[in-house]
From TrEMBL:
The keyword Coiled coil does not apply. Pathway: Cofactor biosynthesis; thiamine diphosphate biosynthesis. InterPro entries: Aldolase_TIM (IPR013785), ThiamineP_synth_sf (IPR036206), ThiamineP_synth_TenI (IPR022998). Pfam families: TMP-TENI. It comes from Tropicimonas aquimaris. Gene3D superfamilies: Aldolase class I. This is Thiamine phosphate synthase. Residues 9-174 form the Thiamine phosphate synthase/TenI domain. Keywords: Thiamine biosynthesis. It comes from the Bacteria.
Amino acid sequence: MAETEQPQIYLITPPEFELSRFPDALARVLDSREIACVRLALAGQDEDRIARAADACRTVCHGRDVAIVIERHLQLALRHGLDGVHLDGARGIRDARKELGEDGIVGAYCGTSRHDGMNAGEAGADYVAFGPVGATALGDGSVAETDLFAWWSEMIELPVVAEGGLTSDLVRTLAPITDFFGIGSEIWAEEDPADALARLLSAAD
């Protein structure tokens, strides 16, 4: 569990990216260190664009034996051979589990709510994500406090992801009490995302 092992890395794609460039950048990051899972987190509702991104990122991930899930779009996950879906809260988890089967990955983002996390776990989620853990202009300003992760890691067996606004200091603080670090915007704006990832995680190494 998180108390005895270093957290695994869960990569989150940018909400917008150039399909001609991003798969190569993703490949370089996946080749730089062990990554547990990738979340395709494209914004918008352009089905064709998201489908093409899903195919390209799946090829990169599966070529390296890395699982890939997609935010929200269960049918695209099924149609394009992805490993699962990442949902907002507990809603839809039971249906997703039914569609994906026991081997599919079903995750849930639960913000800062312990209650929502427990509901997601009871509904059959494979993991819950809490965040943001650091300061961000997104959302309502709420932050998933360290105490939430400490309580969860002590009381709940379901794996937990810490994401949103990660810094080296937060990585150091949360490493003993989370199972995964969800890392996205922290690295993709950098010239060398793989190097940015290494610097961010050096606090936990």
